[in-house]
Amino acid sequence: MLDLARLRALHAVSVHGSVSAAAIALGYTPSAVSQQIAKLERETRTTLLERQGRGIALTDAARHLAATAQQLLAIVEEAETTLEEQRGQPTGRLVIGAFASAARGLMPVVLASLAAEHPSLDARLLEVDPHLSVDLVAQGVIDLAVAHDWDIAPLPAPEGQERAVIGEDLCDLLVPAGHPLARVAARRPLRREDLPGRRWICQPPGSVCHDWLVRTLRASGHEPDLAYQAAENHTQIALVAAGLGVALMPRLGRGPLPDGVLALPLEPVPVRRLYALWRPGAARRPAITETVRLLADLWPRRMS
Amino acid sequence: MLDLARLRALHAVSVHGSVSAAAIALGYTPSAVSQQIAKLERETRTTLLERQGRGIALTDAARHLAATAQQLLAIVEEAETTLEEQRGQPTGRLVIGAFASAARGLMPVVLASLAAEHPSLDARLLEVDPHLSVDLVAQGVIDLAVAHDWDIAPLPAPEGQERAVIGEDLCDLLVPAGHPLARVAARRPLRREDLPGRRWICQPPGSVCHDWLVRTLRASGHEPDLAYQAAENHTQIALVAAGLGVALMPRLGRGPLPDGVLALPLEPVPVRRLYALWRPGAARRPAITETVRLLADLWPRRMS
DNA sequence: GCTTGGATGCAGTAACGGTTAAAGGTACGA
DNA sequence: TCGTACCTTTAACCGTTACTGCATCCAAGC
């Protein structure tokens, strides 16, 4: 009787292309994977792996067997989902992928709640780039993604994935104390006309914050002066505190501002919307529904 | 990750209706099966078995899981067949069911050849009633059946099974020495007209030999006098030797006749045809094709 | 009542399946 | 050409698993 664990090892080797990569993916040492497959070869009396240079190559029989393994694993996963659904309690492993701010500002409290309320759920966190989250969900690397879009560039409904809105995250303009705009903001909310002509501190190109700034200012005919680029919020805040420029920053995960940095509201306020994404059908898992519920429930009200 | 061995245990319990029956079918002790399923219950955090009187009953979740297990096991069996086919050498377990005479007269030499030529094949023999063999093949209890029909009642091509002819087994009339028919047979072959009016020794009702006798004599307007009924050939021969009557007996597995018993040829000769039966697609297994080949090759020429 | 048949719990044991450490082999660079 | 780095495999070791055998418990039947 073929063993499922061994077939899973073969499948992992087939997918990742090497014994070591498969071992990492499975959480074993390469030695263990190698032995599993050697045992599978003995049991089936078939050569599955052939050494090719420094690595290995799968034989035809191995590729066919790996395809069968994939089929089996899909059925097993389906069965496990059904069991969890029937039981109604979150169980098993749930890998959540979240972008940096959500990982800092939202996930700790969510993960703590999950751990407290559902001890048999093994929830894990992976900080991922929001652009990659759709693919990572599809590939099965993560089961649930926390992603976001931006008011001027809504997230297209991902092909064959389901989603729910977690909440809306508002943006303020960070300025050093004593900045001219602080006096303006004391009288009225800042408008987009107030933004051109500043030295900007923002994220590197390719990030949504960067794009928002460029597109919004260009729409009013100006090219923003992106003088300082840093990925981390704290770095940006430090640059603002040093009086080097102004920054646009969402409230989620921003943390308390140091003395000498002010958060000024904008009108209309830039907003990004946070979503949870999962594979179609995965909502049958209580683990998914419960986590999505907690994400929305624990979404800080002050954000919106 | 659900374990296939445990799922197989659950499936066996589901099929056989009790832990002990499942254990027998799987070749374990009931304790082992009970522990397997207890572990499966812990892993899935689901109740699968409930005590019902002296036995057990499956929960809804267990029935659903057993159905999934069946699906998985079918895929695994298919994969194992493909592996054996690719390798081209008989391997794995092959359960052969044969009716009594074939088990005695044909299978020993076939099994010995298989064991000698294919050490990695685990061939097993089960003596089965020929009427049941079609069902047993369909149920998967046996992988290959050696069955037979009778010239006046050909075996209908079994629904959804494949077959091959092994050979033809001829029948003689056994009489005690000094019986009047012995003198007739010395001059010419016996004909059906010589048969009525004898005291018959034959198998119990329901067996093919019994049916052949009754139908053949009734066709010529006579009711046979079935004075002595015994299932075993040797018993019948002993009854003939004691001068109690005559018997019709196929040559396969008949063994040497004791002094005082003669085998007289009939014209036309009653003949039964031996078949090998297997599930459709199973012929992809070299184990099946090789065994069928040996069955036909080692079929004793003197029989036909 | 006792007996029978079946499921389960427990102790013991053999085999399995992992890790670490060391040993091939191959490609790449000095 | 040799050394190095990388990957796979092997060997030794060890904790865990998964059987068996036996005892126990429960329900049904005599």
Automatic annotation (TrEMBL), chains A, B:
A GO cellular component entry from the record: protein-DNA complex
Residue ranges of domain HTH lysR-type in the record: 2-59
SUPFAM superfamilies cross-referenced by the UniProt entry: Periplasmic binding protein-like II, Winged helix' DNA-binding domain
Keywords: DNA-binding, Transcription, Transcription regulation
Name of protein: Transcriptional regulator, LysR family
Native organism: Streptomyces iranensis
Similarity comment text for this entry: Belongs to the LysR transcriptional regulatory family.
Top-level taxon of origin: Bacteria
InterPro entries: LysR_HTH_N, LysR_subst-bd, WH-like_DNA-bd_sf, WH_DNA-bd_sf
Molecular-function annotations in GO: DNA binding; DNA-binding transcription factor activity
